[in-house]
Specification:
The chain has 503 residues and is an alpha+beta fold. It has a domain of 72 residues. Helices cover 14% and strands 35% of the residues. It is built from six helices and 32 strands. A four-stranded antiparallel sheet has the order 1-30-29-28, with no helix packed on it. A hairpin with a 4-residue loop joins strand 25 and strand 26. Belongs to the WD repeat coronin family.
């Protein structure tokens, strides 16, 4: 019987590594044994966790600064122990979160152009609650300033980064949490745990909605949400063979499909493209990247091809769709970390003869603009990420969110000005007479007119000083609030009246 070839526009996708001068080399990549990708990338910056003596550090370089990295290049060095995970904010390309073995989560504001002279040691926000190392940080896909962190204390905290407060504490895992993933609208999370059970959790309440046994093997498993609510996972069988599986979000425990790949022992990291339904599997220590296409009908997961190279990967980062090169029909770009200190850029393209924009390859993708605030999300509002045309995002500058393409300019500016912990220099590119800009200038010792006449640079410096002072005051206030709460709890044990202490 003749085999019918499945029709797919991604059937001929192929990967190709960039030339060495277009990659990044001489990087002291971390030697940590933690199961992390060690790399995060967005349309502006590449961030890589590095080896650091006496603390934790990671490297941030602008994408265009390819080639050999200087040994004395400035780093982000505020952690007191090794950094385990980093993640760029989807709603501000200048903001990155990091989790560390020092039990803290820090959020950093990276200036346009990257770090130029000194190491960045002062975080924009310090989030302190975990009692053991923080192994994972994941931003909410559509709500501004909502960040999830998971630690070795088997707890998950949902943070409002703008206020440096905890929105939810999730304490339902008996063993180490191996992975956490938001669903498309951010109304649910799925976790994999060392006890081999997958849990679907309401992130606002911490209540476990569904749970079920996942992969049977003792080695770590990872689970991610797909756009339609199903769950894709990678793990091991009882015979330590690597597997991938698809699960119905309403019926965990019985996989819709489960396939064995090989008998290697490296953990498989799944990377999912929610726009094209492509899934890339990158194994730690592998020299291959397998890619599949997901469809809603059986057999669900369709193997496409494998990209192979001679060097094993130590870590991996993937570019959001906002950073794709549409002129070459690029649909995915990976940043592969090698043990030699090289970060290799691998581009996956779909060959097309026409040079016109290929609408079938580039459906609307998640924009940098947020869909709701942290308070709205906590009150029960759900919203999918705001979408923007890939063609509009790529027409003009590299900093896609900084222009008014796609009709997002005004809303995007308002969005970034809600970011309490810092503002990128792109925020002031709107009219200086807007209420957000005119108010600080009037308070600047009567120098509002002078600030305007001095140009954009002076305006940025003045606003950054105001934000820095406000941040310091908030940290002091938060410290006093925690102290008051502790004293009130102690007094309540002796039934002492505390109402008259409110003043």
């Amino acid at each position: 019987m003749a085999r019918v070839v499945r029709n797919s526009k991604f059937r001929h996708i192929f990967g190709q590594a960039a030339k060495k001068q277009d990659c990044y080399e001489n990087i002291r990549i971390t030697k940590s044994a933690w199961d992390s990708t060690f790399c995060s990338v967005n349309p502006k910056f590449l961030a890589i966790i590095t080896e650091s003596a006496g603390g934790g550090a990671f490297l941030v370089v602008p994408l265009e600064k390819m080639g050999r990295i200087d040994r004395d290049v400035p780093l982000v060095t505020g952690h007191k122990a090794a950094v385990l995970d980093i993640a760029w904010c989807p709603h501000n390309d200048n903001v990155i979160a990091s989790g560390s073995e020092d039990c803290t989560v820090k959020v950093w504001q990276i200036p346009d152009g990257g770090l130029t002279s000194n190491n960045l040691t002062q975080a924009a926000v310090d989030l302190v609650a975990h009692q053991r190392r923080v192994g994972q940080v994941v931003w909410h896909p559509s709500a501004l300033n909502v960040l999830l962190s998971a630690g070795g204390d088997m707890k998950i905290f949902i943070w409002n980064v703008g206020k440096a407060t905890i929105l939810t504490t999730i304490d339902c895992h008996p063993e180490v949490i191996l992975s956490v993933s938001w669903n498309y609208s951010g109304s649910r999370i799925v976790t994999s745990c060392k006890d081999k059970i997958f849990r679907i959790i309401n992130p606002r309440t911490g209540h476990v909605v569904k749970s079920g046994m996942g992969h049977q093997g003792a080695k770590p498993a990872r689970a991610i949400y797909l756009r339609d609510g199903r769950i894709f996972s990678t793990g091991f069988s009882r015979m330590s063979e690597r597997q991938y599986a698809l699960w119905d979000g309403d019926n965990l425990g019985n996989a819709l499909t489960m396939e064995e790949l090989d008998s290697s022992n490296g953990i498989l990291f799944p990377f999912y493209d929610e726009d094209t339904s492509l899934i890339f599997l990158c194994g730690k220590g592998d020299s291959t990247i397998r890619y599949f296409e997901y469809t809603s009908e059986a057999p669900y997961i369709h193997y496409i091809n494998t990209y192979s190279s001679s060097d094993p990967q130590r870590g991996m980062g993937v570019m959001p769709k906002r950073g794709m090169n549409i002129s070459t029909c690029e649909i995915a770009r990976f940043y592969k970390l090698l043990n030699s200190g090289l970060c290799e850029v691998i581009s996956f393209t779909v060959p097309r003869k026409s040079e016109l924009f290929q609408e079938d390859l580039y459906p609307d993708t998640a924009a940098e603009e947020h869909a709701m605030t942290a308070d709205e999300w906590m009150e029960g509002k759900d919203a999918e990420p705001r979408l923007a045309s890939v063609r509009d995002l790529n027409s003009g500058t590299k900093s896609h969110s900084n222009n008014n393409s796609g009709g997002l300019g005004v809303n995007n500016t308002n969005q970034k000005q809600e970011v309490v912990f810092g503002k990128s220099s792109t925020n002031q590119k709107t009219s200086p007479t807007s209420p957000q800009n005119s108010s600080p200038q009037k308070n600047g010792n009567g120098g509002g007119t002078n600030l305007l006449s001095q140009g954009q640079h002076a305006d940025n410096e003045f606003l950054e000083k105001l934000v820095e002072e406000m941040r310091r005051v908030k940290i002091i206030v938060k410290g006093h609030e925690r102290r008051i709460k502790t004293l009130e709890e102690r007094l309540s044990q002796y039934e002492a009246p505390v109402d008259d202490l409110d003043d």
